[in-house]
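Before a colleague's protein record goes any further, I have to sign it off. Alongside the sequence sits a line of tokens, each denoting a local backbone shape. I want your independent view on whether this chain really folds as the tokens say. Where you disagree with what is written, explain briefly why. This is what I was given:
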Amino acid sequence: MKKFIVLLAMVALMAPAAYAGKTSGCGLGAESLTGKSGMLMNLVATFLNGLSGNGTFGITSGTSGCDANDVIYNDAVREQFVAVNLNNLSAEMAQGNGQYVTVMAELMGCDTSAQPAFAQMSQSKYETLFNSADVDAKAWLTSLKQEMANDAVLSNRCTRIS
């Protein structure tokens, strides 16, 4: 559980920095220092974004100066989550629900209404996704994306499949 919380915090702190639209990202800092420029102002805005942690929510919801469609979502973040939580993902995907499955769906860009379909697909494709005892995070993520792309619901309602 502690690993999950630490990783979630890392993703929350890294996500605003991954925003492609502004140098300082988006969130409280970027909004409060609108119109200011220069390296110092960008550093202050980035610090405020990280301190408040609202950049992640803004990216997801499209608020706080963030545009949910302009996010560059790095596969490395997802790979790291998978590598750290593969055992938990395996257990929950076998059951078809759980917090790790929900977070994985969110990392794959699935909206809230598509998360049950993601859980169901991960359970029905469990044997394909976990086809060996020694699963590599990057290869697993590639298999997951392929299965999601082949699913009629997920291919339309999850934005980070490609």
